Amino acid sequence: MDPIRNPYAPGAGQRPPELAGRDEQLAAFDVVLERVVKGRPERSLVLTGLRGVGKTVLLNALRSAAVRRRWGTGKLEARPDQGLRRPLSSALHQAVRELGHTDADSVDHVLGVIKAFAHRDAGANAKLKDQWSPGIDVPAVRGRADSGDIEIDLVELFTDLGGLAADVGKGIAIFIDEMQDLGPDDVSALCAACHEISQTGLPVIVVGAGLPHLPAVLSASKSYSERLFRYQRIDRLARDASDRALTAPAADEDAAFTDEALAAMHTATGGYPYFIQAYGKAVWDRAPRSPITLDDVLVATPEAESELAVGFFGSRYERATPGERDYLRAMADVAAASDDPDVDAVPTADVAAALDKKPQSLSPARDALLKKGLIYSGERGRIAFTVPHFGRYLREHVG
Questions:
Q1: Taking the C-alpha atoms of 306, 311, 316 and 319 in order, what is their torsion angle to the nearest 10 degrees?
Q2: What Gene Ontology molecular-function terms does this entry list (predicted)?
Q3: What CA–CA distance (Å, rounded) separates 212 from 47?
Q4: DSSP E strands: which ranges in the chain?
Q5: Most CB contacts within 10 A, which of 99, 106, 128, 315?
Q6: CATH 1.10.8 fits 238-317, yes or no
Q7: How many CB atoms lie within 10 A of CB 341?
Q8: What integer best gives the mean pLDDT of the chain?
Q9: What's the half-sphere exposure (Cβ side, CA atoms, 13 Å) at 69?
Q10: Where does the pLDDT of residue 341 fall: very low under 50, low under 70, confident under 90, or very high at 90 and above?
């Protein structure tokens, strides 16, 4: 098979050639866009799932859907070490530019509010050289979104943005990846702003994506967040969608898979979109001709596993300290001892018992792994890997 024509794309956030299994989410979002513009009540959206299930890809696809309807859009990726003001200001600056409002005075006013919102990140009395500018060349508007209280400021900012979008019969959508990494104050402010906008009916929505415990993060901030957002769990692909993710790109290159090869690919990948692309690329490069057979899959599997071991699993494992690695391996061993080796979550008490230590003494390692995004806690007293098949990798590759 010609490697130059290899259609598979195993990259972080890189759109696969066939976005299989997400038709329902895309169709539902089209309805949301229409309802928001018409002033109908609608909730913002939160996508949750493990790493490698395609949350970022879907987030980008939803943004493209909004752009096609000529909405103003902006995207940011939350980071634990960064507040919300600066990245959000840049994203909203782009959204206003995309909106295409023709009244220069109205646009300049909102851009000035965004600039004032951004400048508060440096403090009220910061010197000019310490003030960060989002590339907006209009003066900051005083007395709007610049109180220093992020909750008050964000409500005012969203209100002005919604008014600008409503003027032209469009909407503004803010896309936030890794949303679980927002700080507590920023999460609270974002929830409050979404709540206010939903009550006023202004055409502004937030679309967030994050790990499975994101709903718990939002709920801990504002109790009404359970009703404020529409939650969609993004999971592995069903067999038919998994097959389509492989066969549709191959067909575009005049190639095909045998039924036995497709079955073996689904077993190997577990239906996880990132794994499908990784295995697809390896199998294509190894197969001598079309159709791709079961033997081709078996020959290419070690290469695909080796690539994942280094780039997908290993890079994450290397971020952990020796003590944290012991904790991860203990989690894998506890899961292996259960009836289901791919069990979603294990009790923290069992992990401590496996290490022959008191649970309290392991809190620093557990908390550090949580902050690094390697594990998450969906419920009290239980812990799980954020990466699918990570436990299997640890048992097979880590002594």
A1: 110
A2: electron transfer activity; heme binding; metal ion binding
A3: 9
A4: 44-48, 72-77, 172-177, 204-210, 229-233, 346-347, 375-376, 382-385
A5: 99
A6: yes
A7: 13
A8: 91
A9: 23
A10: low
Question: Tokens 């499975």 label which residue?
Answer: 212
Integer-rounded Cα Rg, in Å, for the chain is 23
Q: Residue 122: which pLDDT band, with cuts at 50, 70 and 90?
A: low
With contact defined as beta carbons under 8 Å apart, do 296 and 261 qualify? yes
Residue 343 confidence (pLDDT): 65
CATH superfamily label, 23-233: P-loop containing nucleotide triphosphate hydrolases (3.40.50.300)
Task: Give the pairing of strands 346-347 and 229-233.
Answer: unpaired
Q: Please spell the DSSP secondary structure of 65-107, one letter per residue.
A: HHHHTT-EEEEEE--TTS-SHHHHHHHHHHHHHHHT---HHHH
Domain ranges within the chain, ordered by starting residue: 23-233, 238-317, 322-397
Segment 280-300, tens digit of pLDDT: 999 999 999 999 999 999 999
The answer to whether 192 and 228 have CB atoms below 8 angstroms apart is no
pLDDT at site 13 = 76
- Residue 126: what pLDDT? 53
Q: Work out whether the CA dihedral 131, 132, 135, 136 comes out positive or negative.
A: negative
What is residue 7's predicted lDDT score, i.e. its pLDDT?
Answer: 96
CA distance 265 to 99: 44
Question: What is the model's pTM?
Answer: 0.90
- What token pair was written down for 212? 């499975």
